[in-house]
Specification:
This protein is an all-alpha fold. It has one domain. Helices cover 80% and strands 0% of the residues. The chain has helices at 2-27, 31-34, 38-63, 73-95, 103-120. The chain is flat and about 50 Å long.
């Protein structure tokens, strides 16, 4: 149960972080947002990223073996990276339709998933 909760929290965390890092590129299509200066855009992104911590920190505490969770620190990090890639891919496909996924992207993603397999291999 702690493993599933950890993964769910990591997905939520990465969703907020992806919007914080890349959302401003899409928000630029809104007239009011284009009037903001760089410092204001950074502050908006920072405000979004704050919510990432509300999910990331509990995910790591719940999921970490030393706190009764199922994952080592290395496993948590690799899991987080693959979840980041998954969330980013969905974000890109649905919000940035001008971006194209090619075969080499798919192969790279497969290698990252294989990294998770090898990290979790006992």
């Amino acid at each position: 149960m702690k493993g599933i909760l950890t993964i769910g929290l990591l997905v939520l965390s990465n969703t907020f972080m992806t919007f914080a890092w890349y959302g401003h590129l899409k928000f630029a299509e809104m007239k009011w947002f284009n009037k903001l200066g760089l410092i204001s855009i950074v502050m908006v992104s920072w405000g979004i990223a704050l919510f990432e911590y509300f999910f990331q920190v509990p995910a790591n505490r719940i999921g970490f073996k030393d706190h009764g969770g199922p994952f080592s620190l290395i496993e948590l990090k690799v899991l987080q990276e693959v979840i980041t890639l998954f969330v980013f891919s969905i974000f890109t496909i649905f919000l940035f339709r001008s971006e194209t996924f090619r075969w080499n992207h798919l192969i790279g993603f497969i290698f990252l998933v294989l990294a998770v397999f090898f990290i979790f291999k006992k």
